[in-house]
Amino acid sequence: MTSAAEIERRARIKAGELAKDPNRPKCDTNWIDRFLAREEEKSTEDKGRMIVNIYRFDVRKECEEEFARLNETAWPELFRHSPDYIATEVFNDIFGHNTYLTLDIWRSEEAFRAFQKEFAEDYQRLDDLTEACCESLMHLGICEVGTSSGATL
Known about the structure:
By secondary structure, the chain is α+β, with helices and mostly antiparallel strands. The longest helix is centred in the middle third of the chain and has 16 residues, at about 65-80. The protein has a domain at about 50-153: Alpha-Beta Plaits (2-Layer Sandwich). The protein has helices at about 5-15, 30-40, 65-80, 110-120, 120-130, and strands at about 50-60, 85-90, 100-105, 135-145. The chain has a four-stranded antiparallel beta sheet. A hairpin with a 6-residue loop joins strand 2 and strand 3 (about 100-105). The protein has five helices and four strands; from the N terminus they run H-H-E-H-E-E-H-H-E. Helix 3 (about 65-80) packs antiparallel against helix 5 (about 120-130).
C-alpha cells in the first residue's frame, strides 16, 4: 500500500513542483569546468573525447547510506589515482525507488582499463562492497562522447 506522503510526493512530481524543491539534491557540474580546463592542454585531435561508463543499481533500502558513501566518496577517491579520470555522477530515481545510475567519466576506455588493471585489488574490494548493497546491478555500457560517433559537450 502506498503511503499518503508518497502519493503527495508523486503528485508534486507530476505538477513539476519537485524540481523547485530546495532540498532536492542537485547535480554537481563542477566536473565540466575541470574537464574544460584540462582540454586546453590537449592536442586538437584529442580535445573533447571521453567515455562514460554507465551502471544501474537497485539498492537495498537498509544500504542506501553505505551505497551513497561508496559512490560519492570511496569510488572517486580511488579513481583520482588516474589523471585520466574526470568525474562520477550519481543519479537517484525521483519516484522514490531505490534505483540509481552512476556515470563514471574517463578520458578513454583504454585509460579506464589500464586503471582497472593497475588497481585491481582496490577496485575488486570496492566492487564487492557495492554489490553487497544491491539487490541487483547491471552494467549498461560504455558510451564514447566527443567524437563524430557521439555527443559533444
